[in-house]
Design a protein that fits this description.
Helices cover about 20% and strands about 30% of the residues. The protein is of the alpha+beta class.
Length: about 160
């Protein structure tokens, strides 16, 4: 059970859990991708459309930027909320590359609990900003078939 902190979890109507409303020319793989993102608030994506010009994509949990963003998210949460969490490991990472990279992180801390964080990670003159830090809603990952782990991301 997660400690009783005041978590950072602002409401965003885009991530309301409703299915993606396809547009006329949307391909099946994009519709599946969009629905998976909407139902997991961007924290999980297994299907990347063949022609995706911009969007949320998986990133290595071991990359230097991922580790730095995860540590920064935990440190900033601790600073803002007077918590004393320590990062154990990054379990999953998705990114949206814009001026700053928006990381969607699934983390485990040394308290044994799982957390989700969204953090804009700044490069150069751009600053970083923690926008969400909460107990994980989507870990373990939602799976269609829990026996085989096939069909990830669909309820």
């Amino acid at each position: 059970m997660a400690p009783q902190y005041e978590f950072i979890d602002p409401f965003d109507s885009f991530w309301d859990g409703s299915p993606y409303k396809p547009e006329k020319n949307d391909k099946a793989d994009f519709i599946q991708y969009a629905n998976q993102l909407k139902t997991t608030e961007g924290f999980h994506v297994d299907v990347i459309p063949k022609k995706l010009w911009s969007g949320i994509v998986p990133e290595s949990v071991d990359s230097e930027d991922t580790i730095e963003a995860a540590n920064l998210a935990v440190e900033e949460f601790n600073r803002l909320k007077g918590a004393d969490l320590k990062l154990s490991k990054v379990l999953n990472t998705n990114c949206l590359f814009v001026t700053r990279t928006l990381f969607f992180l699934t983390l485990q801390c040394l308290d044994g609990c799982f957390y989700e964080a969204k953090i804009y990670f700044g490069y150069g003159i751009h600053t970083s900003e923690l926008v969400m830090f909460r107990p994980a809603k989507y870990y373990p990952r939602p799976r269609k078939d829990e026996e085989t782990n096939e069909g990830g991301g669909e309820a």
